[in-house]
Amino acid sequence: MTDPYQQNNPGFGGPQYGPPGTGPDLNKPQDTAAMPQFDAQPPADQFAQPQYGQPQYGQPNPYGQQPGGYPPGGYGPQGYNPNDPEAPWGRDQFGVPFSDKQKLIAGLLQIFLGAFGIGRFYTGYTGIAIAQIAVTWLTCGIGGIWPFVDGILMLVGKVPDSDGRPLRD
Fold it and tell me: Which of 20, 81, 104, 144 yields a CA-CA distance of 20 to 30 A from 151?
């Protein structure tokens, strides 16, 4: 059985695709001037891309940012901002500056040493600290529930420092 669409032409190798006579005429010589020359180098500016967007590798950065787009590394303790003298530890979501005291330290001091009012001394409330000492010792330890609950409230963040600033994380 012969396939009329795949006739083997001697000297051209391979099948012919499509109906006979529709492909290129392989019997006539090709025009070499119309063929692309792969060894010739194009002029330098003929296919140049416009220089928009990011600068190319090795070029100076006109925007003054660090490579990679990251801000410069911070120095000092975490959260410390020397550019804002009114709030060196940052501000909360309402714009109130954070305290220099930490929630975790205040809460743990109040839970474990609350009978001595240490957590309240740390946050600046000396009057409440003395009251906690008095209540705990005058009730023979039963008043120690107050400093314990107060320490939990400090850990949750419900107790500000003596200046009214929220304790920082």
Answer: 81
Rounded to two decimals, what is the model's pTM?
A: 0.53
Sequence letter at residue 112: F
The C-alpha angle 106, 110, 116, rounded to 5 degrees, equals 125
Supply angle C-alpha 48, 51, 56, rounded to 5: 100
Band of the pLDDT at 111, cuts 50, 70, 90?
Answer: very high
Q: Are 70 and 59 in contact (CB under 8 A)?
A: no
How far is it, in rounded angstroms, from Cα 22 to Cα 16?
10
**Could you tell me which of 145, 148, 167 has the C-alpha nearest to residue 158?**
167
Confidence at residue 86, expressed as pLDDT on a 0 to 100 scale = 86
In sign, the C-alpha dihedral spanning 33, 39, 41, 42 is positive
Residue 129 identity (one-letter amino acid): A
- Read off the DSSP letter of residue 79: T
**Would the CA dihedral through 120, 126, 127, 132 be positive or negative?**
positive
First to last CA, the chain: 86
Strands of 42-103, DSSP E: none
Going from the C-alpha of 135 to that of each of 38, 91, 114, the distances in angstroms are: 95, 35, 11
